């Protein structure tokens, strides 16, 4: 996989395209199959969708092809790689939750986690900053 490339691509301003149409459009551009080669998560409140590739592809090249695509231009959508980060902020943490509990929770692979190197708790704002040993997509 190319260095610095993320398996996820963020699409913004997708409101002019239905989720079904969006998935077909991505299949046409990528020559891949939705739910087999990639997954799509639509976040309607933000007019955003995230395509995550299960198959290793050159996502930078895919973003270029999307931005040059006639339909993508007609729908006035934008596409960019999802930045990888090593830290995420967790909010709405219940009172009294320990640093150990948060560490174990975010190391759980079923929760999409991985090895945690640091947890900073901010009890007054019910939040924490979790830093992973490996970069994670900040989803």
Labels describing this entry:
Alpha-Beta Plaits, 7 strands, 4-stranded antiparallel β-sheet, alpha+beta, 2 domains, 139 residues, single chain, 4 helices
Concise overview:
With 139 residues, the chain is an alpha+beta fold. It has two domains: 8-81, Alpha-Beta Plaits (2-Layer Sandwich), CATH 3.30.70; 87-132. It is built from four helices and seven strands.
Fold topology:
Elements: E1 8-12, H1 19-30, E2 38-43, E3 48-53, H2 59-68, H3 70-74, E4 78-81, E5 84-90, H4 99-107, E6 116-122, E7 127-137
Antiparallel strand pairs: 1-3, 1-4, 2-3, 5-7, 6-7
Task: Give an overview of the whole structure.
There is one protein chain. The protein is built from four helices and seven strands; from the N terminus they run βαββααββαββ. The chain is α+β, with helices and mostly antiparallel strands and 139 residues long. The protein has two domains: 74 residues, Alpha-Beta Plaits (2-Layer Sandwich); 46 residues. The strands form two sheets. The chain has a four-stranded antiparallel β-sheet with strand order 2-3-1-4, with helices on one face. The chain has a three-stranded antiparallel β-sheet with strand order 5-7-6, with helices on one face.
């Amino acid at each position: 996989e190319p260095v610095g490339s993320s398996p996820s691509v963020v699409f913004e301003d997708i409101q002019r395209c239905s989720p079904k149409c969006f998935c077909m459009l991505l299949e046409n551009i990528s020559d891949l199959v939705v739910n087999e080669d990639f997954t799509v998560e639509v976040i309607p409140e933000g007019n955003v969708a995230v395509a995550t590739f299960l198959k290793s592809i050159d996502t930078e090249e895919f973003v270029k092809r999307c931005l040059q695509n006639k339909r993508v231009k007609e729908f006035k959508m934008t596409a960019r790689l999802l930045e990888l980060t090593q830290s995420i902020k967790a909010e709405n943490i219940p009172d009294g939750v320990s640093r150990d509990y948060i560490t174990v929770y975010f190391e759980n692979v079923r929760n999409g986690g991985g090895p945690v190197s640091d947890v900073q708790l901010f009890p007054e704002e019910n939040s924490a900053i979790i830093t992973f040993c490996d970069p994670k997509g900040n989803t």
